[in-house]
Amino acid sequence: MSRPLLSAAAFLVAAQLSGCASSAPTVTTTPEVTTAPATPATPAPATPAAPVATPFQVVSEQFADLRILRYEVPGFEKLEPQQKELLYYLYEAALSGRDIIYDQNYKENLRVRRTVEALWEANQERLAATTNTQEVEQATRFNVYAKRVWFSNGIHHHYSTRKFVPEFTPDYFKNLVYSVNEQALPLLPGETPAKFVATMTPILFDAKLAAKRVNQEAGKDLVATSANNFYEGVTQAEVEAYYAKKINKKDTRPISYGLNSKLMKDKRGNIVEVPWKVGGMYGPALTQVAYWLNKALDVAETPEQRAALTKLIQFYSTGDLKLWDAYNIAWVHDTQSETDVVNGFIEVYGDPLGYRASYESVVSFKDLEATKRIKAIGDEAQWFENNSPIKPENKKKNVVGITAKVITTVVEAGDAAPATPIGINLPNATWIRKEHGSKSVSLGNIVDAYDRANAGGMLDEFAYDEAEKNRARQYGSLAGKLHTDMHEVIGHASGQINPGVGTTKETLKSYASAIEEGRADLVALYYLLDEKLVQLGVMPSLEVGKAEYDNYMRNGLMTQLVRLTPGETVEESHMRNRQMVAKWVFEKGKKDKVVEMVTRDGKTFVHINDYAKLRTLFGQLLRETQRLTSEGDYAAAKNLIETYGVKVDPTLHKEVLARYSKLNIAPYAGFIQPKLVPVMQEGKMVDVKVEYPTDFAQQMLEYGRKYSFLPLHN
Q1: What number of H helices and E strands is found in the chain?
Q2: Helix, strand or coil for residue 699?
Q3: Cβ atoms within 10 A of the Cβ of 131, count?
């Protein structure tokens, strides 16, 4: 089973941490220069200088380990009025589900978020009114904590999933609570401010309470030790036994069991699923989502798009997973619409067992010019499958229906924001992909924004030599885009599971996501050093592939460690997959010194001696990851990840952190979203304008006022 919608971190380490992305261009406009006559008859009147365009400011602010960025929506103004209206309705639908991701991440998150929203203005007033150093420090720390909650959609780090606690004191929190009107606080019925403080203090400040949103530590009860709100009162063994009885592995078209429900015990102790639907759990928010989707039906671009949206509304109205499959099939077949939307319960990274999906939405329209590159790759999908080093019996005989495109993102919401994917490959259901195809997209304007926001410094600090640096500067940005294209378009669409084996969440269990992302990465890496991509005209030479090999190995073996604190092991699936791939090929190539860890002037560097042999090793590992995926070999998957993808060399980690700390670069980034504003005449929408907010906190507060539909606890 694929896990194709990647967190931004899946590829952004390549651009952001290793410095391979191109630097932000300097944007100016130069007045046209003409040659004046040698002897003019009369003095020419002074011509006002053309105004100099102000460069779009991508980087907004930095705090904790986060950078807040902004992205543009080029080409929006050229869309037809009907397309703009459609995108506006899809924009509102996307944001209307925002509460859901908070509650899914942890059942107290909505109360925490509404607490910081209620205290925000009072804290700003304190900050403005005081000159006391300690007061300023406490108020500033409150602001940072609030922004971290907004960025992570809750109190657990968006990437590590570990709980972060405030750096302001419990006493400051209590005093701030008492300084606001009681009616502004998110109190439960009959609750006093004093009781509220007593309840919320451990939720905020106790690091051991709900310590990890997603626990992947081997040997632990992954359900009981994960703080997400997908399960309540059940153990991992009970969950696995529950689905073992329900799922028929011989079913060639299985529904996505558990995708849109909470699993818990009723008053009698029976395990039950509580569906997320209109009239059920998350009903108030989903009612709003469905309302805006209904509005979108009237201005849909094509009959196929209208049919897909109709199925999505029906799914939200009923919770019927067969309708979810019907929607995905209809969505895949809508290939002619210029506008598009991802909306639903989609990715299962937030569930350690891989059943339940987080709410997310991405609203977009096609970048027609940029799509030519990714389409050229998608059109050759069968060639890539036929020439893959995987076992013949694991190959698809007929790769169907891959729609590849580059999109311009309009808004992202739920699990896709503020931290965003840069590539999407959907749907996730293996049988739908096999029978009906898939859509593979690259988020073009998001990738461009990351390129322009590149902080620099990492390349100079961690690249082996000038040749590697120059190759990265010349080809790194293109290399990263091609890796994304190949990963999404070819990687996730390749290979097949043997009949009767079952989906990877059933067979590979907690290792499924890391194996799937590693498998897709390996497809990309294997072909990035293939002349086929040069022949297709998507890259000028194999130097592009070498740039990506440099970057991938440097990142997998070293630089991604900046995301961990001393003593931590690797748990996030994308980090596990990158380290697993890099360490496996490093170890297997040691005898021939294919890749070396070189120490120079007390610093460690990764150096590739033989790119061709490294490609061969990538191919060997691709063959193995596809084999264990096809056969459902849990033991092999566990051994591969636990041996190569989890453990961290503490000495190397300490060195990397020390070198990185001098660069003052936040390792994670996310976005302030553009704002769509309808232009109305006589009650009718005649146009839609795009605004670009600059203040992250103000956008979060506005969202809190406008899109809060769920109760405190769900």
Answers
A1: 26, 15
A2: helix
A3: 6
One-letter amino acid of 326? A
- pLDDT-based confidence at residue 219 (cuts at 50, 70, 90): very high
Separation between Cα atoms, residue 704 and residue 186, nearest integer Å: 13
Mean pLDDT, residues 588-604 taken together: 97
| CA 566 remoteness from chain centre | 25
- The single-letter code of the amino acid at 469 is K
| Distance between CA atoms of residues 510 and 77, nearest Å | 45
86-127, pLDDT tens digit by residue? 999 999 999 999 999 999 999 999 999 999 999 999 999 999
Alpha helices per DSSP H over 486-536: 504-507, 512-527, 531-535
Task: Tell me how far CA of residue 253 lies from CA of 243, 402, 430, 492, in angstroms.
Answer: 16, 19, 9, 18
Q: What is the mean pLDDT of the chain?
A: 92
What predicted TM-score, i.e. pTM, was given to this entire model?
A: 0.85
pLDDT tens-digit series, residues 661-701: 999 889 999 999 999 999 999 999 999 999 999 999 999 99
Residue 105, helix vs strand vs coil: helix
Stated length of the chain: 714
Return the HEC string of 404-472. EEEEEEEEEEECCCCCCCCEEEECCCHHHHHHHCEEEEEEHHHHHHHHHCCCCCHHHHHCCCHHHHHHH
**C-beta separation of 425 from 493 below 8 A:** yes
CATH among 3.20.20.70, 3.20.20.80, 3.10.450.50, 3.30.540.30 for 9-18+277-671? 3.30.540.30
Cβ partners under 8 Å of residue 159, min gap 6: 7, 9, 419, 563, 572, 668
Q: How many CA atoms lie within 13 A of 555 on its CB side?
A: 28
**Centroid of chain to Cα 89:** 23
Question: 354 — alpha (psi -120 to 50), left (phi > 0) or beta?
Answer: left
DSSP-derived pairing of the beta strands 603-608 and 339-347: unpaired
List the chain domain ranges: 9-18+277-671
Question: Which residues in 292-401 belong to E strands, given as ranges?
Answer: 339-347, 358-366
Beta strands 668-672 and 66-70 are: parallel
Q: In which element (H, E) is residue 119 found?
A: helix 109-129
| β-strands 261-265, 231-232 pairing | parallel
Give the per-residue pLDDT at 43: 44
Q: Is the pLDDT of residue 151 over 90?
A: yes
Non-local CB neighbours of 90 within 8 Å, separated by 6+ positions: 292, 293, 296, 339, 341, 343, 361, 363, 410
Contact 555, 578 (CB under 8 A): yes
Q: What is the DSSP string of 533-591?
A: HHHTTSSSSTHHHHHHHHHHHHHHHTGGGGGS-TTPPP-SHHHHHHHHHHHHHHHHTTT
